[in-house]
């Protein structure tokens, strides 16, 4: 546009045409260049451009066709307003990625990014990672900013591939400028962002260290996942002549960075850890050692505090719903054995040697389910047939689009396949726009226009409910097939309370397609049928095909799978299972899990939940202890019922008083490791002879780090007999013989029970004076305060402190006159 205007600028005014593009006609004093028509940021959608074109045409001509199309776009805007609430699925570091550790900086420091996977740290750790720059310019903005900033130092992230390309020149410039900066060079042995290619040239940790030393860097630290590789320091710089070189384990990363940020001048930290995705690829090829040690979480001990995610940022930490709250589990199928999660201050983590994850055994054969598979009706291609495939990067979403494209090619049809990935190949949202026509001449654009998807194949529910996917749906035209498996986003690693909004997203999709949709847990079915969750997408494709929403023949699709050449028989079988599920889902479900073919889900009654907790507290301490719990809950139930309540307050008190009374001290942790349930779950997860190690922070003789926080230590299987002894001594709890009960943490936990009972007593008194409805919201908020008190040690102390602030505010609201509370809210 600008080139065209430049070309026309010197034409005579009476013949020089107006050029309309980014802006409309100029002339108004407030808009000398004209108003924006198409924004300069982000990319354009078909709908954006269509509206601009319609607006230009409307200056001279209008038609029913244009008005109808604009009405569709306007109606879609209403639904898209709801889709904005769907949580995004951003790109995220892989499980065990070195960047989960390498891009963290000490409190009070900042890091700058450049080109590479570490640029994602600006979104994942935004409070500490700022700005990006071009390749070879890593840290360069600081060269000018340093002289005008009160900040004495910054870190700059730099990948090994970028370092070899041009990043070394940025270090040279920083040395010449004399600024205080630490370059963190990640040596991950691969160009990871674009698929794991080797670096374009000879490069190694010793070469990098020697080169930066030759450039004038006098302080170099090597931090490694396995420092033993470098214990002989072969090829590495030596100390002396103004040079200081040190070697550290990655557990000392924070301490090393704190020291380097006080160094005057340019320092370099080389972080040596192989890319997690590369480890996985190489293990499959036999080029990397198999995982020798697995991590397992005892969910009975887990408090769901999320500190393991805070420490590791690992996507293999998955939610584990239970009767006692949301816990954590390790997804063994995706775990890359980084073990950083063990740093979470929690005694629920166990290292397990000598085992392999127990894989689901596939069902016997397709012949076990005799379902007649009629050919679906042929779809006429009198217009372009649009298929939008949505899912998570790295799960085979793009493969489905490629298979459909190849099948269309085999049948001589016109087809275009546009994959939208970017960095989202790393756990983020990916989409594939597949357009099929009678011939290629009909295909004018690769993207599916607004409201013109015929099939939305939602391999992931969140991405199927995202604004981009919702914009392609139209009632009366679109059929949606959605996998209901609830895979959390990367944010779950950082947010202990993150919840999958299944009901919200499902309702949005149903509204967008006028209920022309099917929802099924394809991941669970495919795993049980095929023994591998990766079969879920082919299962969905088979289901959609049998529903008559894919304008291709079964023979072409099966041939495309064969041409792809990867797990041909398994993929063809998954496709067939999907077809059968579309004909008789119940029969396929029976084949997947015969013992669970008929499942009746009943809501546990309030009385049953209280009885369960009474039994738990009896085993926890004794019958008298449990009776104090039951009597108090009964009082609340009676009081609430007398004021017309519906049991909300009693349920909240029953859950939260139990939580506080069943605090996990040393006796309880020991009991939860030795009552049989832990070993039963361990046997369900692994096969082989397990050798266990426990990661604990004993309160009496535990170690502490530089910040004064307790540090976990590793203990062998001999802890199990010790646990049995401790569990047998649990009735000493609270007596003068309870040596653990004298610690500040145990005294705090006992006081929390006393305070909570007192707060509920105050609620009951206020209820008698005001009635339940007038204090309902405040009362429930007070009753539910302990939900946020989770974790162990300093993690729990921080949560208690935050809860105390909230408690004081709520108690003031409780005792204040109703009018005063309303006035305070209005004033705020």
Q: Major beta sheet, specifics?
A: 7 strands, parallel
Q: Which strand order does the major sheet show?
A: 2-1-3-4-7-5-6
Number of strand segments? 23
Q: Helical segment tally? A: 30
Helix content: 40-55%
pLDDT < 50 runs, ≥5 residues = 596-603, 818-828
Task: Using the alpha-carbon principal axes, give the shape.
Answer: globular
Structural class: alpha/beta
Beta-sheet strand percentage?
A: 5-15%
Radius of gyration: 31 Å
State mean pLDDT (0 to 100 scale): 90
Task: Give the CA-CA distance, first to last residue.
Answer: 50 Å
Brief write-up:
By secondary structure, this protein is an alpha/beta fold. The protein has 30 helices and 23 strands.
Describe the structure.
The chain is α/β, with parallel strands linked by helices. Helix content is 41%, strand content 14%. The protein contains 30 helices and 23 strands. The strands form 6 sheets. It has a 7-stranded parallel beta sheet with strand order 2-1-3-4-7-5-6, with helices on both faces. Strands 14-15-13-16-17-18 form a 6-stranded mixed beta sheet, with helices on both faces. A 4-stranded antiparallel beta sheet has the order 8-11-20-23, with no helix packed on it. Helix 27 (744-770) runs parallel beside helix 29 (793-815). 38% of the residues are buried.
